[in-house]
Structures are given as C-alpha cells and as structure tokens.
Write a structure and sequence with these properties.
By secondary structure, the chain is mainly alpha-helical. The protein has one domain. The radius of gyration is 17 Å and the shape is globular.
Length: 170
Amino acid sequence: MLLFLVPLVLGFALDAASAFTAGFSRRWGERRGQQVTFILRNVFGIPLWVVGLGLAVRTRSLAVFSVTPVAEVVGWLLLAGGSAIQVFALFALRSRAAMPSTRDTLVEQGLYAHIRHPIYAAILLEFAGLVLLKPTQAVALACAIGFGWVLVQARCEETDRTPMEVRLWP
C-alpha cells in the first residue's frame, strides 16, 4: 500500500540535493556542477517524485472526505492555476530552471518580481488541488510530504550561494 513512498521520497531527496549547484561547482567545477544538478533534478528527482505521486493516486486507500462538485471545481482550478504559474515562472527563468549556474543572477522579472518562489507556490496549489480531486489517505500523505519537501527545497536553494552572492544578499 505504501510503495508509492519509495519513488516519492527518493525523488524529493534527489531534487533537494540538486539545490546545491554552488557546492557542486566549487568541488567539481562550474560545468560539472551544472551537470550534476541537471541529472539530480531533471533525470532522477522530478521524474521519481512524479511517479510516486502518480502511484499514490492509483493506490487504494480510505477516503479522507467525499468529493463534492464544488471541491472538484476548486481542485481543477487549483491544478490549472498552479500549472499556469509554473509555465510563466519557467518562462522567466528560461534555461536557469534546468541548468542553474553559479553565474546566474537573481531573477526579478515576471512572477519573480512579486513572488519569491513561484514554482514552489504553484506546486503547493497543485498538491492542494490533487487532494481535493482525489481525497484518499495515500494522496493526502503524498501531498503532505510534498508540502514539507517544498519548504526544505526552497530553504536549500537559498542557502546554496556563492561567496559573491552572500555579500550581495542582505
């Protein structure tokens, strides 16, 4: 029943490890640091946790509450809104989303001018929407772990700065 936790938690862990681009770059050089980040996040991390989330949706478990038409509409709106926010945020980041570099500057345009972590905010909306659409214990647990991962991931990214960035940040 809880097999979905294996790819979910492993994916979140690998994705969180991908936040240390500056550390990888200091150890192995800029290009290898980018490659390690790319592989951890895009080859293993994201695909694994998405598979885990998909398995949670397919896992038979008790319902937390019954789906009402209002919950269903709100769930779809949260999923659509989260997806739209992700698209706009990725457009603002461009290639930095897939291959971050220690040379990247802070993005201050688009959604990043108003929200500190728009991609993570969007993922939180999508997790909430998923729970409204499929309110089972398995999905609720997967999304609760996802909420925790988003908090850890954002913090990891904020602490992984090059010495120059540390001086520039308040």
